[in-house]
């Protein structure tokens, strides 16, 4: 899709990856609607863009019914004003690095809500107001393809988001809406605590700058690539995990001591 003058709605737009996506999209001439909970941070993102007056923001907690209604009303306003939104990027996400036994039920539900239920509900709503041709791009994770200790419910949510994106893209075949899925690997943002960043370094896991993810987003939107995994070893591991999961289990087993050490520190 050509992005110039297209209206693009981004959730999680004040986060590390969301802000980088907003900056890349604004360079492409897109007009943005940035969504997150905290106004100050959204304003900062808008002020960092080349033409701030062309972009808007919406404060909404997307795990609530009220937040989803605000988003739907905003999109309907656009529809009525003949300024239909052409692209939705579901980027809002969260995770907690802990073993399942140490998690409380509320935090598990919140994680599943924001990473899986929320993008499903926004996507369903978008079927009624998105321009055609239109694109929905869901931001997943390498952990959606590889079950990893300390991230069980996050892995579950992102795996669900991957299947959802694939299923709906097939369901909408020929109907003018594409549903794409991008799986970044570890990325340098506030999502990862200092401890997690330290663990990634110890394990030799590569950590991308958010701009790397944003550039992949632009390429995917332009080419309408159905799904993409960032990073070579991660891409390969995701494939091996499908075909020969025991190989991946053996490899993760070698990391267990380090993972346990860092999870313990996270719990202190
Ligand atoms: N960073 C990584 O290592 C990594 C790797 C793979 C995939 N990802 C995925 O990439 C996406 C972006 O992550 P990030 O690293 O940029 O995270 P981040 O820096 O923590 O940003 C999270 C964003 O989501 C918003 N948000 C959080 N809770 C919300 C809620 N209830 N309603 C509406 N917005 C909410 C936050 O703004 P407010 O707090 O103001 O609401 C913020 O804009 C996520 O889906 C994440 O799972 C990240």
Automatic annotation (TrEMBL):
Residues 6-199 form the Ketoreductase domain. Gene3D superfamilies: NAD(P)-binding Rossmann-like Domain (3.40.50.720). Keywords: Oxidoreductase. Belongs to the short-chain dehydrogenases/reductases (SDR) family. PANTHER family: DEHYDROGENASE/REDUCTASE SDR FAMILY MEMBER 7B, DEHYDROGENASE_REDUCTASE SDR FAMILY MEMBER 7B. This is SDR family oxidoreductase. It comes from Vibrio japonicus.
């Amino acid at each position: 899709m050509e992005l110039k003058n297209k209206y693009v709605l981004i959730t999680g737009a004040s986060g590390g990856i969301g802000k980088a996506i907003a900056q890349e999209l604004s360079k492409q001439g897109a007009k943005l609607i940035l969504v997150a909970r905290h106004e100050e941070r959204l304003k900062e993102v808008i002020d960092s863009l080349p033409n701030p007056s062309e972009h808007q923001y919406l404060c909404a907690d997307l795990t609530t019914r009220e937040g989803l209604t605000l988003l739907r009303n905003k999109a309907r306003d656009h529809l009525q004003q003949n300024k239909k939104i052409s692209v939705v990027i579901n980027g809002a996400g969260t995770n907690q690095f802990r073993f399942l036994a140490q998690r409380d039920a509320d935090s598990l539900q919140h994680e599943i809500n924001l990473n899986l239920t929320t993008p499903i509900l926004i996507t369903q709503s978008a079927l009624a107001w998105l321009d055609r041709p239109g694109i929905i791009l869901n931001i997943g994770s390498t952990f959606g393809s590889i079950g990893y200790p300390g991230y069980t419910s996050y892995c579950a949510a992102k795996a669900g988001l991957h299947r959802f994106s694939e299923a709906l893209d097939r369901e909408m075949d020929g109907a003018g809406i594409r549903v794409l899925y991008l799986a970044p690997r570890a990325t340098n943002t506030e999502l990862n605590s200092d401890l997690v960043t330290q663990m990634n370094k110890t394990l030799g896991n590569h950590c991308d700058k958010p701009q790397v993810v944003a550039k992949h987003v632009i390429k995917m939107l332009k080419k309408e690539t159905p799904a993409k995994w960032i990073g070579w070893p991660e891409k390969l591991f995701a494939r091996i995990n499908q075909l020969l999961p025991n190989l991946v289990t053996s490899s993760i087993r070698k990391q267990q001591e380090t993972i346990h050490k860092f999870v313990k520190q996270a719990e202190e």
